[in-house]
């Protein structure tokens, strides 16, 4: 039971044919307005250029009426998070992102703020991966090594963002996404939700709801 | 300088339209005959069913005149490796494979046998990843967590197996392989060789040679 929880986990920040975050505008507006969010604290660590990344998010959200600040510009990260109305953790490399959150010792704090204080959490792609129980089901290349693959555990299961079905006519012999997720399920005996691009998982309190116009795929033992 | 080294690193064990290992038959026969290898010790840990995996390799290599034994069937792994004429490390999940090699404490022994005693090493896919300096450039899902991403370091650089060019007309918004490898290069400032399916890197002593009918792609800072 977690009555305070208010989370939106996007598969991706972009959808083919639309601008950055545009496909999720309705989802974000509804969430932020319900929680009276005026300013979003952006966590840019999954990509190398934090200023540029924060500006990208600002350019998307500001016209919709939301102010965006970069966590990396704050002298005291913990204080900034504690005072935030909403946290948005952007995509990029999941291993780099989780490593940085551990390095800055922000994991326990963010978990506590979201689960106990009800601070709104929005994630996309890598930001969705780190919100789940672990990053074992990321698609990213392991360019950095975090101390553990355990993540924020804001939801007690795994998500595979950018989930896509196997191409039937592919001549490539690398594993398909389904084969990779089956490896995870066989190894951990735990479920994982394949979240297609353009869709999001909204979790308000203990009620989870799939948003967007495509279905998701649940893999379990 | 490493005069003893005799290594064949395959991008993949399968190529579209041909049977398991068939595309590399000439490469394997030439290598094994040059080194008078009659029996190959197979390391099956990258896939869950070790017996079945070893039989797959046996079915491929035996008709060509090479006996195959599974490392997992040996009561003393270190002794079996020390007495081996050639080691073949098969593909599957790179994280699972490297975790198992660390768990069995075989990393230092295999490195020593290959670099100092000249035991022939053959790897494909995950078996190629673990032969390089680290597994930071695997395509696999991180379903297991090894104590470190550092690997056998039989060659002092990284390889990306199953390398493939970006699909120009893709509507998928997940990163392309080139974007992922650029992330690695930006993070580590180290080179990585993208090895296309159907090709292999042969390293005899200090001489490396690309085998197969396609070129490779080198990414560097």
TrEMBL record, chains A, B:
Residues annotated as signal peptide: none
Gene Ontology cellular-component terms listed: cytoplasm
Cellular location(s): Cytoplasm
Predominant cellular place of this UniProt entry's protein: cytoplasm
Keywords on record: Cytoplasm, Dipeptidase, Hydrolase, Protease, Serine protease
Transmembrane segments: none
Cited CDD domains: GAT1_Peptidase_E
The keyword Protein transport is assigned to this record: no
Catalytic activity, EC: 3.4.13.21
GO biological process: proteolysis
Class of the enzyme per the UniProt entry, highest EC level: hydrolase
Source taxon at top rank: Eukaryota
Keyword Cytoplasm attributed: yes
Catalyzed chemical reaction(s): Dipeptidase E catalyzes the hydrolysis of dipeptides Asp-|-Xaa. It does not act on peptides with N-terminal Glu, Asn or Gln, nor does it cleave isoaspartyl peptides
Any one GO MF annotation of this record: dipeptidase activity
Stretches of the chain forming a coiled coil according to its record: none
Main function: Hydrolyzes dipeptides containing N-terminal aspartate residues.
NCBIfam families given in the database record: PRK05282.1
Similarity-based family: Belongs to the peptidase S51 family.
Name recorded for this polypeptide: dipeptidase E
